[in-house]
Amino acid sequence: MQRKFYQKSNLPLFLKQVDRTACTVGPGGMEECSEYRCWEELLPDALGLIFRNLSLQEMLTVVPRVCKSWSRVVSGPYCWQEIDIQEWSQQHSKPDQLTRMVHTLIARSGGSFRRISVSGLPNDSLFTFIADHARSLKTLELPRSGISDCIVEDVARRLSTVTFLDVSSCTKIGARALEAFGKNCKSLVGLRRVMHPIDVAGKICQHDEARAIACSMPKLRHLEIGYMLIATKAVLEIASQCHELKFLDLRGCWGVDSKFLQEKYPGLKLLGPCVDDCYENSFWEECSDDSDDDDSIYSWEYMDDDDYYAIGSDEEDEGIWDDGQAVEGLEVRFYGGGFGEGHAGFDWPASP
User: Fold this and answer.
1) What values do phi and psi take at 167, rounded to 5?
2) Which residue from 177, 229, 274, 288 could staple onto 351, CB 3.0 to 4.6 Å apart?
3) DSSP state of 299
């Protein structure tokens, strides 16, 4: 079986090279070697595990053109038990593109996805669509999304299987939504509700959110509430009612007395409220042009036309990438007076 790969593809080596010495056991007990490995005979589940190591673009546009068996695998549920498009969604701000991508991948999963991670859901209808197909969902990560309290209260009952929830920087929800999540997600053991200082600008406090967490999420073991406007009393309420809590991230919660909290709950691992690292420049290192990582997610954007041929796929997949290559009119703005040490943390403020 011949397969054609293109120069400088981002596919890992195990997909670029076809093993020409595949051996099987013949009728006489002797090993018989064939010229090519029969990849189409590999179980779809195994191929799905392999393909998950590829980038999203490769799975949607390159793999389907390799052969029919691979196309069937990436078109079915084998590759989409975990739908992680958070990085892609941060780079594509058009709501229609994001909506099409979510619809496409959930349809391919057959409603059997166990995790979905997407940033910036543009509206309540897309959140409703996810909830309608969430019968197997365990991990729901929707940071910076535009979901509202009302829609969470309406559809939270369909998310009863969720065990980990990320609603960081979702500025349109508050205590009502958190309470709805807690009451309906009975097995919730992890919550990430990290805010950016800009998200809470103008607010007086978020004690009502802390109270909702304390009263409705008794099985929590992992809680991240960085930069929420809360005081020691609110955190004590959470710790006193969430008896299984093992880890608590309070970075940026300047009103919390961590020393007092640690004395009262010595078995609780605390992080913060002081901010020590601010990502340690990791964001800029990942974007560096000097990176030696051949599998960098950015590398495909800088290939010459002669070296790389963008393989097409189904029309619904190709349309998602329509504007992914254009850099004309790109505007870059830097705030805060440059890139000194005080701004190395991707605009997170230092401890006061």
Assistant:
1) -125, 40
2) 274
3) G
